[in-house]
Design goal:
338 residues, 8 strands, alpha/beta, homodimer, TIM Barrel, 8-stranded parallel barrel
């Protein structure tokens, strides 16, 4: 640990991540994709009793369901990954539920990776950095109001954020600044697990560069963005999203991006298992996080397709599924390497 | 106009857009990038008096400032383009201010293009479509709750949304569905106006395809996504974001994407004028919208750098700047072509 981390300074994101993985016994990330259409009926009914307005009722149910999942997995998961779209679709009450969910997860000792895939240029990217990384200075000229508007917290401050790279370096810089100075992390979309991911990401490049595809070029940018950042155990705060459904590409990208933590979606529901996810880790079994959302959150529905289930049933099934995922990953990675 | 538009069905987005451009006398879009650090002091002071909580106070000021700009430009602008980041950075009170701003702009007869650059895969993209295009069905299997959670409005329903293409077709499909069936429009990031935009967008492609760059490949996808959509005057609801700072590329992309409306940012503050923006239009002077944000919103600060100004001063200066922009564009496009 470098001296920069001492004396009240927050540790770099890769250090906090490594600590969480060691403490929880594995690199499990639970994706918080609250889909009310799959909730147990009791939490929806209670939401309707608690709030007259249907939008606030469903947002209440979203927050309550998310809290129950967090309670169920807090000693198993290294992090949770709330997917903003599933909160944003209920407007500001949904965003208030996201705020409550982020705050609750942090209080329960979980790292929070917000899955927002945000992207924009310059000062607009700085506004997203303010939203998810706290009251960063926005480095825009001409500000004259003093501190009060520039330092207002969004309420959405998380540990890390997923970021889309299509706009290039100046759209990422405000997030890098928070990685450098505030212990934050980002995960840049490199190679996604969806069927159409290849349409742009696998395009073959011409010219004399070493990158053969768009995804490889993004990988090289990610490596560059990680340079000079605070590190832990060889890893920096700028990570990459690399789907588990493309293990042969994941292996090549793993070699291409030393020091870059991979966030691997697609575990479980999207068809990839522990053996596929293994490709994202280094030879020591480190350097990656694996996300599962619906296979954990709605495990009860697979266990008992015939029974509606209660919130407690869902939470207990989620815990069983998270423990199973942790065990599967430990077996694939070599037990004890955490 | 096809028969599909009759009998209570909403007209296709390109038809509504053409009507707005004709009515307002030009393709001016006013970008709503509310930066409290540049607001007149009176609106911030009033916000502080109206709300005890500083975050709600600044969100109040954001909504009030946005409303004043909308009032000032409603008969000059075809559309407003709220930039979500500048609302999201104040968390849920900021998103409530966005909801108020969208609703107010619609009531004042303005089309609303939400600049969110949203992107995700499959059912998550569907959740974003629900957020900004209303209560679309989420086409996910296993839903069993009946209509109430699936049909709750987000409060953020707009006419169009900017979308990032990095995830390919399946991340865009839920938005296309709303274009097809609900009269919505999208603007896909093709070639952005920021200095680093070229890093990925200008990468040269190998292989036998006709697209020479990533941006051209995205352009070809946009053309494909527009196929079979309801059209008006040759234009469909799937548009493209093409920066005015790269006019020679804009001209080539204009030829490459017939029937695709261009949304051109970068007018004014980002260094491009009417002559550069001209490249985005077809030979009739149609097929593009031009956005300006800070040059309009904060015009007072340029007019009178020595005077703090009131909200009324800012609104009057914004109106003058919008009228000037409309005149400049009309001159560049050939007056009367709208």
């Amino acid at each position: 640990m470098s001296t920069r981390e001492g004396a009240g300074r927050i540790a770099p994101f890769p250090k906090r991540l490594a600590d969480a993985v060691a403490e929880k016994g594995g690199p499990v990330v639970v994706g918080l994709d609250p889909r009310p259409e799959w909730f147990p009926p009791d939490v929806l009914a209670e939401g309707r009793r608690a709030c007259e307005d249907p939008r606030e009722a469903v947002a209440w149910a979203v927050a309550t369901f998310s809290r129950a999942v967090i309670d169920a997995v807090r000693d198993v998961a290294a992090a949770v990954k709330p997917q903003v779209a599933f909160f944003e679709r209920y407007g500001w009450p949904g965003m208030r539920a996201l705020e409550e969910t982020i705050a609750y997860a942090k209080r329960q000792g979980l790292l929070v990776i917000v899955d927002g895939k945000r992207n924009d240029i310059g000062s607009t990217a700085a506004a997203y950095a303010q939203a998810y990384f706290g009251a960063a200075e926005t480095s825009t000229p001409g500000r004259d109001d003093g501190p009060w508007t520039a330092r207002i917290p969004s309420g959405l401050e998380a540990d890390a954020l997923t970021v889309n790279p299509y706009l290039g370096t100046d759209g990422v810089e405000p997030f890098l600044d928070a990685c450098r100075r505030r212990g934050k992390g980002i995960f840049v979309l490199v190679r996604t697990s969806n069927p159409s991911g290849a349409e742009l990401q696998r395009l073959a490049l011409a010219g004399g560069g070493t990158a053969a595809t768009v995804a490889e070029q993004v990988a090289d940018l990610v490596v560059r963005w990680n340079e000079g950042m605070p590190t832990h155990d060889g890893y920096g705060p700028v990570g990459a999203v690399v789907g588990a459904t493309v293990p042969e590409e994941a292996r090549a990208l793993r070699r291409r991006m030393p020091g870059v933590v991979f966030l691997v979606p697609g575990y479980g529901a999207q068809g990839a298992g522990a053996a596929e996810a293994r490709a994202a880790f280094d030879e020591r079994g480190r350097g990656a996080l694996v996300n599962s959302a619906r296979e954990i959150l709605y495990a009860w529905r697979r266990e008992r397709p015939d029974a509606p289930g209660t919130l407690d049933d869902f939470a207990a099934a989620a815990r069983r599924a998270a423990l199973r995922m942790r065990d599967e990953l430990a077996a694939a990675l070599g037990r004890g390497r955490g």
